[in-house]
Amino acid sequence: MSDNDDKAADKNGANPLPAFPGAAAEPDAPSAPPASAGPQQPDMPQAPITPPAPSAPQQPYVPQAPAAPQAPYVPQAPSAAQAPTAPQAPQAPAAPQQPQYGAPQPGTPPYASPQYGSQPAGAYAPPTKPKGKLGTGAIIGIVGGALVLVILLVIAVGFGVSRIVGNPGGGGGGAPAAEASSPSDAVKGYLTAIAGSDAKTALSYLSSPPSDSTLLTDEALEASNKLGPITKIEVPKSDGKGGSADVTASYLMNGEPVSTTFSAYVDGGKWKISGGTGSIYTEPFDSLGLTINGQAVDTDQVDVFPGTYELATSLKNFTLTGPTTVTVTESYSSADTSQIEPALTDEALQQFRSLVRAAVEACVASTTLAAGCGLDLPATISDGTQLTDGTITRTLSADSNATLDSLEATPSYDNPTLVEGEYIGSPEVSADCTKDGASGRCSIYFAPALGTPSVDMASDNPVVKWD
Question: What distances in angstroms separate CA 35 from CA 79, 87, 402, 416, 426, one per listed residue?
């Protein structure tokens, strides 16, 4: 390349030079006011509106007491001038109007009409049955019917609630979150569902299940419980009288003791867990065909239940190194993946080294100024010496050959399928040259070094590139 000469100068502090050999009602007012003074009334069945019969036997027109508690006929309401006054509170006992139990007084309407014959003067015609009034029996019937209806409604509603509460909230027949009547019940039910690989039931205990359910599945939990089974779950009783509670649970994960605290609160009358899940940060493994517990993951972060998770790659030329099995035990926590790195498989590493060596050998063998691999030379070097194209000789040193044999390959951080090699070195270079009218064979000091090789090892046809 055109800057090869500068690169060489940067590495060794001088420009390439030639070297010649030497370079959310009122009781109806009573139909007759209560007597404040008068004859003693007999013990008779009480009529709702007609006054009781007087004690004097000579009185005419006394109606027979009804044989049954059926509402009697009530006289039509008198005109305004004749109507008896409404009962008043007993502040003035001498003033109340006396009801007439004997012969009708002139100008005063009787309270009871005669049983037979013509009406006395001034008496009212037999009243008709008032509209809107119901007998006691009818009232009792209506009230009784309404009561039966209410009872039926309560039974129906109770049946509906029973059906709703009895509905399972998750797969696998686990206890649903709707039955979590205490914070400790919610936490124990949640962990029990996880230990039983029942993702649906576990999710039903959460107040807000994550939107991404890639690994919140029975399959992912089954793999987790094979890697690190959850056993001996212990959750202390907690009533959460304040409407929220922190519950500390303990259990064994793959035989190792775990103690973790969950936050729970009342939601719709039932206890739910806030959070409950953790996460795994996966961005460093983009483009590597990442799998977690055997399921493909293509996001930068994935939500998981408490459990054990194994990271791997599905690309044939790659593997993951370091502690690839990680655990999540706390709500909102993230698994530690900082020590996991992608790498080439042994077979792919050998392929990488072979590709680089072949490219280097081809570049070194070139006799032209433009040789590739970062070894290009200018026609005129910094001191003015002109090089003759086609006469270039490049020779790889023993150290450079050894480096090629054991070349390290490092996946790029931004694009881990692009694998980079290490610095190889500079070859020895000579060429035919001319300077100041003199020609000869020149040794080129500080000649360009081989660049950094890189290969996309996810490609079907990997090619070496040089930086």
Answer: 22, 9, 131, 107, 133
